[in-house]
Inverse folding.
């Protein structure tokens, strides 16, 4: 069930701005690898989604577009929390701190497999 839900969210993330589709597709591939070889292979070899999934699996690569989308979505989340919580700064501050750590991790991953061969990568 997790694989199907994450596949749906991943496909929606390709279309909807602010929804990180790649992350959901990676979770779906992981879930299907443990439950359904058929759906695992379908996602892994898919013409639209497969390359990103294979690049992550083989090289732990996150494409630049996915990095930008993820950081923008996290920034929008913090901005929305600031607007919703008004004078109460605690939830936005805690969320911003956690998302900053996640964003730093995402941004520091290689953007393509060739980056791994360069010195210092």
């Amino acid at each position: 069930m997790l694989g199907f839900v994450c596949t749906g969210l991943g496909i929606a993330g390709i279309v909807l701005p602010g929804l990180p589709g790649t992350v959901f597709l990676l979770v779906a591939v992981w879930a299907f690898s443990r439950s359904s070889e058929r759906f695992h292979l379908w996602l892994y070899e898919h013409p639209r989604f497969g390359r990103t999934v294979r690049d992550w699996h083989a090289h732990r690569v996150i494409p630049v577009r996915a990095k930008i989308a993820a950081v923008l979505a996290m920034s929008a989340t913090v901005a929305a929390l600031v607007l919703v919580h008004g004078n109460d700064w605690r939830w936005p501050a805690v969320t911003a701190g956690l998302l900053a750590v996640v964003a730093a991790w995402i941004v520091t991953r290689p953007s393509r497999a060739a980056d791994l061969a360069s010195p210092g990568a």
User: Anything to note?
Assistant: The chain has two domains: 2-59, 64-113. Helices lie at 2-15, 21-35, 37-44, 50-59, 64-85, 90-107, 114-117. The mean pLDDT is 85.
